[in-house]
Amino acid sequence: EVQLVESGGGLVQPGGSLRVSCAASGHTFKIFSMNWVRQAPGKGLEWISYINKNGSATYYADSVKGRFTISRDNAKNLLYLQMNSLRVDDTAVYYCARGGYCTASSCFTGVPYMDVWGKGTRVAVS
Amino acid sequence: QSALTQPASVSGSPGQSITISCTGTRSDVGAYNYVAWYQQHPDKAPKLMIYNVTTRPSGVSHRFSGSKSGNTASLTISGLQAEDEADYYCTSYTTSSTVIFGGGTKLTVL
User: Fold this and answer.
1) Distance in angstroms (rounded) separating the CA atoms of residues A126 and B12
2) Which of A32, A56, B14, B70 is the most exposed place for a label (fewest CB within 10 A)?
3) CB contact under 8 A, B46 and A45
């Protein structure tokens, strides 16, 4: 079964740092791009970051650019989000999501869709 | 960049059809056919329902369909069922190589 499990969330003070992780299993992690998406309490979804399959390309939403860093370790099937200079409005559930989609015969990984999601990890900045 | 514009809520009775709109700009929805729709039930992770504007992933009901005209994409759900009650989000790839979500639409099945 394809699975993504986030961890590392918690309570942090404004201005602090936190690193959340996402462990992938059940698929060939290294061939897929990955994303982080967050959802503030009672609010909608917000895409915040993307990393390609080998880590050579990363993109960020303006709201986190310069403060957050996405990275991955393909040998360990792990995705990371390093969050610095945290603000109260960064409080959210953080989801990792696999980039791409698969049909019965093929997987397409260079497309801006998210076909497998974790259950999320909660980050509270207060 | 501002979120794509969706109605905050829509409703329909079982068996009816509803359509959710998603309006962007020439820099996102109007620029590419990289529009997707996600369904999210309360306290659950989102689920991909439509990609490439019109394509359903395997396992998604044929009652869900997508379309696009200019800067506006749409999701239509036909034959509404109770389990369709959820939040729906559109997304689009942008000319800045980012992804943008819509603000979300709460679907109520009456």
Assistant:
1) 40
2) A56
3) yes
B2's CB contacts (< 8 A; 6+ apart) are none
3-class secondary-structure state, position B83: helix
- Does B49 or A111 have the greater pLDDT score? B49
Are A54 and A109 in contact by the 8 Å Cβ rule? The answer is no
Whether A107 contacts chain B with CB within 8 A: no
DSSP per-residue codes, B29-71: TTT-S-EEEEEE-TTS--EEEEBTTTBPPTTS-TTEEEEEETT
The residue of chain A nearest to residue B58, with distances taken between CA atoms, is: A103
Q: Rounded to whole angstroms, what are the CA distances from B42 to A1, A43, B33, B52, B107?
A: 23, 12, 29, 25, 12
Share of chain B above pLDDT 90, in %: 97
A24 forms beta bridges with: A4
Facing residue for B99 by CB, picked from A112, A118, A120: A112
